[in-house]
Amino acid sequence: YCLLPYWYTLFHYAHTTGMPPVRPLWVEFPKEEGTFTEDNQYMIGGALLACPVVEPGAQTVKVLLPGCAEIWYDICSAKAYKGGRSLSLPVNLDTVPVFQRGGSVVCRSTGSGKCTADYQELPLNVTVALNSQGSADGDLYLDDGHSFEYRDRKAFCLRRFNLLSGRLLCRPATGEGRFDCETVVQSVTIMGVKNKPSRVNVHVSGADTISASFEFLENCCMLTLNNLNLRVVLDWEIQIN
């Protein structure tokens, strides 16, 4: 359920481009023949790779991480793995190996609710997975979640998150759509950060620059920014120094 914002964005693109939300590996990696016969794994959009456990009583699972130039992050541990290899990972009844692709941004709901309408009111966490160039980007689609206003009155918004050279931007991804909502980005998690920053500044369009609190976990190279409370429909940027 926490991935509903990401799923909703994928279904927007399924509606507008025909690209399916769930894809076999060869759709994203058509030049790698090893992906052609891989039936036990799949991509969720272009950002997440899932490897469900399909054998009863299995204690390990083999995971193919395609793309020699790719970096893949375990979404539970934030541990980074180079692509172009297979891994053997321990699993149990509570384990479903999922990896986020370097160079991607995935939005998740934080907190809990009883139905999808509840989750639409929850704040977001933006998870950034850096590629080998230290950059990443991804989109977020929002509308009212139940009517056809997105079609009849263009009542939607499509936002883009882009991180390059330590600067994370939130900007419109398209000139179409007008939709206002109170959804906020509460936290940002960045995987693949090599050094602890000295400071992090946040600037919202039309407001003063403020300093953000952050936590850096050196053992897994993960930076977390908390208590941001940034409205997703506004333009803002985060500078990591």
Automatic annotation (TrEMBL):
<dbReference type="InterPro" id="IPR013780">
    <property type="entry name" value="Glyco_hydro_b"/>
</dbReference>
<dbReference type="InterPro" id="IPR048395">
    <property type="entry name" value="Glyco_hydro_31_C"/>
</dbReference>
<protein>
    <recommendedName>
        <fullName>Glycosyl hydrolase family 31 C-terminal domain-containing protein</fullName>
    </recommendedName>
</protein>
<feature type="domain" description="Glycosyl hydrolase family 31 C-terminal">
    <location>
        <begin position="18"/>
        <end position="106"/>
    </location>
</feature>
<dbReference type="Pfam" id="PF21365">
    <property type="entry name" value="Glyco_hydro_31_3rd"/>
</dbReference>
